Amino acid sequence: MFSYRHAFHAGNHADVLKHTVLIATLRHLMQKEAGLTMVDTHAGAGLYRLDGDYTETGGEAKDGVIKLMGTLRPALGKAAPSTPAIDEYLDLIESFNPSGSLRVYPGSPFVMHHLLRTESRDKLKLFELHPTDSRTLSANIAQLEAGRQVAVAQEDGFEGLKPLLPPPPSATGSRRALVLMDPSYELKSDYGKVIACIQEQIKRFPTGTYLVWYPVIPRPEAHDLPRRLKTLSNQAKRPWLHATLAIGQDPSHGPDDRPGLTASGMFVINPPHTLKASLQATLPVLLDVLGRGKGKAQSLDTGGG
């Protein structure tokens, strides 16, 4: 169960989608001064070297953040049109690469920490069960000297989340939380665990913002996941948003080559009211830049409430 390592996939098209949605969501939530509790149930190592052995093995960032950055922010020449959500994402990536060379990619924990507000007393709780990645995450977080604002636990995030919701009230008395669930789905049971966890937490804390990333692959569980999340949201009378991005097949691959992951989705329960319009503008640009062959597509669907 510990064979999956996100370092092989850091900065790929799925990370581009996931982190663009995450940043746009957090930017809206943080317009209010009240403190926010953020939870990443499957945090990974936190930081990744795009020139490291793991990433070079798959080279997936070349069809993701590297391609996006090179097209929209070329060192020379005219940049292609962007959107505010993509600009926010690329600004954050650039802040981790001050030399101008794209060598470091921040995972979700560092994306959230980058936006964390000390004055509002935001909190960040990170879970990672993989022993090596958990140690690396702890070491990376320790360098931030963030004190009690950030906590790391080597624990199953599905279980670790339970005592955290509802979150403690902020100074203004409001309870606010964002939860990101992005397991590897290496085990088919992860799909069922996501559903069970969301079902339980939406009863305990119905006003929380829940973000679920998932791979779009030919597996019944992956196909059923967004449908089941829609059903849960509708039953709880909570608004939802569902976005997908498929970059299509690599034209350089032969018919016998393994295609790798070509598409993924983000399902958001209680999304900011600004997120739909933001993604309506952003997804076509991502597809235009990252799309590469047969099967490329994007979709956006909302409902509930």
Write the layout of secondary structure elements.
Blueprint lengths: L12 H17 L7 E4 L6 E3 L3 H6 L6 H8 L11 H12 L8 E3 L1 H8 L7 E5 L3 H12 L7 E4 L3 H4 L16 E5 L7 H16 L4 E7 L4 H16 L4 E7 L16 E7 L5 H16 L6 E7 L2
Parallel strand pairs: 1-4, 1-6, 4-5, 6-7
Antiparallel strand pairs: 2-3, 7-9, 8-9, 8-10
Q: Give the low-confidence spans.
A: none
Distance between the termini: 37 Å
SSE ordering: HEEHHHEHEHEHEHEHEEHE
Figure out the total of helices: 10
Characterize the structure shown.
- The longest helix is centred in the first third of the chain and has 17 residues, at about 15-30.
- The chain starts with 12 loop residues before the first helix and ends with a strand.
- The radius of gyration is 18 Å and the shape is globular.
- About 40% of the residues lie in helices and about 15% in strands.
- Strands 5-4-1-6-7-9-8-10 form an 8-stranded mixed sheet, sandwiched between helices.
- The model has no long low-confidence stretch (mean pLDDT about 90).
- α1 packs across α4 (about 85-95), α1 runs parallel beside α5 and α1 (about 15-30) runs antiparallel to α10 (about 275-290).
- It is of the alpha/beta class.
